[in-house]
Amino acid sequence: MLASDDTAKQQEAIKKIEQAVAKTNIFELPSFQMKANVQVESQGKLMDGSYELLWNGPEQWKEEIHLPGYTETQVGGKGTVWILRSTDFYPRRIHDLHTALGFGTEGSGGSLVQSSVTAKDKVKKVHRRKEHGEALTCVEYENEVKSPLGICVNESTNTLVRGSSYVDKDLQPVGGGKVYPRFLSFVEDGKTLAKANVTEITTPAQFPPSWFSPPAGVSPQAGCMNPTPPRLIKRLVPQYPESARQRHVQGTVALDARIGIDGIPRLGDVVVHSSPDLERSSVIALKEWRYEPATCNGKQVEVETVVKVNYSLR
Questions:
Q1: Residues near 266 by beta carbon (within 8 Å), at least 6 away in sequence
Q2: Residue 211 has what DSSP assignment?
Q3: Is residue 65 part of a domain?
Q4: Fewest beta carbons within 10 Å, which of 31, 144, 179, 206?
Q5: How many domains does the chain have?
Q6: Residue 130 lies in a domain
Q7: Residue 30: which domain range?
Q8: What is the distance between the alpha carbons of residues 273 and 141, in angstroms, rounded to a whole number?
Q9: What per-residue string of b and e applies to 284-312 under the rule 16 or more CB within 10 Å gives b?
Q10: Is the domain of 272 the same as that of 300?
Q11: What would the pLDDT profile of 60-69 be if each residue is shown by its tens digit?
Q12: How many CB atoms lie within 10 A of CB 241?
């Protein structure tokens, strides 16, 4: 059982995290327009593209992404989203871009605008450390499947530090007491997978209603701009096929998936390929994973995501 002073330290640290999240949560602003030059990894190279988000509140928003060979438009209404993209699946590179921007999650602390620590998590330790000369307050915790996680707050800026998989720089005010980085990137195994240079954030912004017209021929679905993401509550560890071990095959398998309101993942296309035996093992395991569904304003919704399995002989 925790001593009372330990409990007080934990509560203080979690409060700091909540305040840090609120400081960068630009979705609390009544309106803004964000533009960014973006890059995503494809076949070992970074492709240039553009990103734009028009926010007129949670009931009227529009997001556009343009990359070589890919376009996507999302328009949001009251609890409803229309999605038009040039593929019939959710590409990994778009998932990585959202992760870099801080609107989604990738492991611990992936989101700038939502707290990673919830009431269902078990706080294990609160400590302070220095990184690059900056003082940080860090919380180590476990989720429902006993995965060790952590999140830190920069004491001088009172903003989240998203960990080694993220580079966030050049924090600038955007109005309403909010700040947001002008440079954000997502890194995996030392490789930059997505990055964004924010060229403009205008607030408040005025938009003609015609800009939020749903794309023609697209059916609406329940959702919102930045849902509280699904939480993994049951994880079957994929078996490492002996055939792959003997060939010393390592790598990552990733699949496009829809997490339903029943918490069951509906697997789509393989979006990061490896050897066929690793892909088969991943599919078998992922079908058994279960989630606490994503929510929009407390209402359960189905969401698209990319689920990954890493295979390493180390």
A1: 257, 258, 259, 260
A2: G
A3: yes
A4: 206
A5: 2
A6: no
A7: 22-115+161-222
A8: 32
A9: ebbeebbbbbbbbeeebbbbbbbbbbebe
A10: yes
A11: 999 999 999 9
A12: 18
Residues 243 and 290 in one domain: yes
* 83 vs 301: CA distance, rounded Å: 15
Encoded tokens for 293: 């569904």
Does residue 81 lie within any of the structural domains?
A: yes
Kindly report each contact of residues 59-66 with a partner whose C-beta sits within 8 Å and lies 24 or more positions away, as own/partner: 60/212, 61/212, 61/225, 62/211, 62/212, 63/225, 65/38, 65/94, 65/97
CA-to-CA distance for 107 and 135, rounded, in angstroms? Answer: 23
Kindly report, residue by residue over 241-270, the tens digit of the pLDDT.
999 999 999 989 999 999 999 999 999 999
Query: What confidence score (pLDDT) does residue 23 get?
Result: 93
Same domain, 47 and 95: yes
Calculate the CA dihedral of residues 298, 152, 168, 273 and round it to 10 degrees.
-70
**Cβ–Cβ < 8 Å for 122, 133:** no
Q: Answer yes or no: do 88 and 209 share one domain.
A: yes
216/82 Cα distance (integer angstroms): 9
Question: Residue 146: which pLDDT band, with cuts at 50, 70 and 90?
Answer: confident
- Same domain flag for 103 and 209: yes
| Paired tokens of 198 | 């924010």
Interatomic CA distance for residues 7 and 241, integer angstroms: 44
More reliable by pLDDT, 140 or 147: 140
Answer yes or no: do 191 and 69 share one domain: yes
Residue 170's Cβ-count burial label (10 Å; 0-12, 13-18, 19+) is exposed
